[in-house]
Design brief:
The structure holds two protein chains of two kinds. By secondary structure, chain A is α+β, with helices and mostly antiparallel strands. In chain A, 33% of the residues lie in helices and 33% in strands. Chain A has a single domain, classed as 2-Layer Sandwich (Beta-Lactamase), CATH 3.30.450.30. Chain A has a five-stranded antiparallel beta sheet. Chain B is of the alpha+beta class. Helix content of chain B is 49%, strand content 16%. In chain B, the strands form two sheets. Chain B has a six-stranded antiparallel beta sheet. A two-stranded antiparallel ribbon of chain B has the order 7-8. Chain B is flat and about 55 Å long. Classes of the chains: A alpha+beta, B alpha+beta.
Amino acid sequence: MKGTIKDLLQIPGVQGYVVAQGKNIQIKLPAKHRFASAKDRLMHLYHDLSKDDKRPGNTVEILLDDTLMTAFLSGNTMLLVLSSLRVNQALLRMTGKLIIANLGKE
Amino acid sequence: MKQEISGDLANTRCPEIIKILSLGKRTGRLYLTNGAETGNIYFSEGEVVHAQCATLTGIKAIHEIAVWTSGEYRFFVDEPADMQTIIMAVDEVLSEITGHLRQMDKITSLIPSSAAVYALEPDIREKEIQLKSIQWKVLAAIDGKTTIADIAQAIGFGVSDAMKIVYTLLRMGLLRDAAPHEIHNERRSIHLPETEFIISLKESLTRAVGPIAPYLIVETAGELGTDLLTDSTDQKAYLIETISGKIPNEKMSLKFLDDMTDWLKAEV
């Protein structure tokens, strides 16, 4: 499976990503990004999404002003991709699904 | 890749090959073909540990392969399985196969092959009929023009399983033979545009779901209102993503996504 973070970052419009697993969170966003220092809020979001076991599917899209947040969930792992609204959303989702499948294996 | 044993399935059937490899305590991959169908059975020191055939894995895949009476087989030494889907001794596997073949003999006395086509019987004698959900799944796909093999692929069942269910439905009086003129007139042939994108899409999807791929492409494009000749990468990506959601086997679905993501990236 070739879906990697590098592939994700090459999609035009992708600003960065967050990977959360258990108590760990890794944020890769430009320093000036509005979510770059929002570790606590992102952790809350991760906990909220990962607790909800009644959600159909494992992809959640959140539209926040001019930012699209796409969360991919698998087990206790979440990959959150932050992008502009002009991103090719289907390609982003396809790549995200491949990455989360890979992360789930690790 | 060292190939050690090979032969014709018309001379040596799958259970016999399993016995031979088991006695020799072999480790490796047994690759079998039957026309366009292929299957793999993995051995570890003579034990059967994993099998795969189309979207099926484990003992269900072996059931599928065991009924093949033509085709070829090759054994590749030291190609171990990357997963274990069978946790039973070889004797148990062989006894499972024997039971399955006995059942299939009974079934083929009523259903000539997986290419048979059935239609719903409009005059049902019973007042009340109870169906299991898997029987209902098959019944809902019976349309007087689709073969059992195509139905099995569409709903992600093994051909043998689908034949078993059709056999039960026939015995319940719910189905009748589809008339030949009915089949001929109603079958549509699908002509997909020969663009680079559609060719790649069809090839990749055929690897995942078999011959129903063109139908799935046309059906999904119709649902989304997508023109198959579109130049829009967005629309292509949306089509690929939607189709991937219809592939019942998750591993196959991811493989399809993987292939097509590569293709799309070259375009973006």
